[in-house]
Amino acid sequence: MGSRGGSGGDGAESHGYAADIHSIREAQARIAPYVHKTPVLSSTSIDAIVGKQLFFKCECFQKAGAFKIRGASNSIFALDDDEASKGVVTHSSGNHAAAVALAAKLRGIPAYIVIPRNAPACKVDNVKRYGGHIIWSDVSIESRESVAKRVQEETGAILVHPFNNKNTISGQGTVSLELLEEVPEIDTIIVPISGGGLISGVALAAKAINPSIRILAAEPKGADDSAQSKAAGKIITLPSTNTIADGLRAFLGDLTWPVVRDLVDDIIVVDDNAIVDAMKMCYEMLKVAVEPSGAIGLAAALSDEFKQSSAWHESSKIGIIVSGGNVDLCVLWESLYKR
Which residues touch 211 (CB under 8 Å, ≥6 apart)? Predict the structure, then answer.
């Protein structure tokens, strides 16, 4: 973990970030008819293991199974009728894809979804279920963006970026509003990090409400570009990623990086085994199904890196953003059928 970064409610509103507490509150009002207010769960058994009081914001119970519907619905319902008439396009490995498909269905407009060929089957099925028009791309982010640009040119559809967009960031920030409304005494929030849309929204909202709150990012070792970026003071991208957390393989954008740079206090890097251990704990003790990206916050809270940091000693009530629950359980079901 690096040294603690910038903080302060004034800072969250005065440095020209893509979103702020006002746009996040506007998003909360705009998306209220279309999203769930998800529960905050706790477990005394997990608290005893971690040694802190944890509050799990369970976006695994959100529509489409992940937090992404917040940003997608805010982006799509912010469009005027002329903008929306030709539909929307996005590229995503899964959760954002399904969220855009669902939000577009709710708005009554077409959604063109560019999906890499290695996306989990359960997430592709969600896109199909919500009526999205799937266009396949290669695995690389360059291929995804290139195909999305071509579709946009062919259809005139509006791009709904998975993270590097004001309305997306503002929508994701509503997670923070709900969590702190329900548990205002939280002093630390641990958030999964990838492209940075979720953690940017969470940080901007939380630090505007409580300037002293600590925002920690949780990142997989096989996709630790954000940690490298914080250390270097500039955006670092990786030639490839290798992690079970398929939702955490994107890189920071020019709108999310300034927020991560200034308002994210530390980044905790964990390996895939720790993520799987945290998933198992969520299943067995919290009694919720989470995907690897959704379990990484708990993995970070359990990590030696966190326990050896100053943040550990300064934290007592920790919010954990359980970002999603779209995990492919086919292997589990097959093993049970074979019994």
Answer: 7, 8, 9, 10, 11, 12
Tell me how crowded residue 273 is: count the other CB atoms within 10 A of its CB: 11
* Angle between helical axes of 95-107 and 68-77 (0-180°, round to 10): 40
Which pLDDT score is estimated for 335?
Answer: 74
Instruction: Please list the active-site residues.
Output: 68, 93
Would you tell me the crossing angle of helices 197-209 and 21-31 to the nearest 10 degrees?
110
Name all domains of the chain by residue range, CATH numbers in brackets.
Answer: 9-66+165-330 (3.40.50.1100), 68-159 (3.40.50.1100)
Which spans in 183-291 are helix H? 197-209, 225-232, 257-263, 272-281
321's CB contacts (< 8 A; 6+ apart) are: 57, 59, 67, 175, 179, 189, 190, 191, 192, 198, 202, 297
Question: What's the pLDDT score for residue 42?
Answer: 98
User: Mean pLDDT over residues 144-162, rounded?
Assistant: 95
Least confident of 114-123, 174-183, 196-205, 254-263: 114-123
Which of the four pLDDT bands, split at 50, 70 and 90, describes residue 331? Answer: low
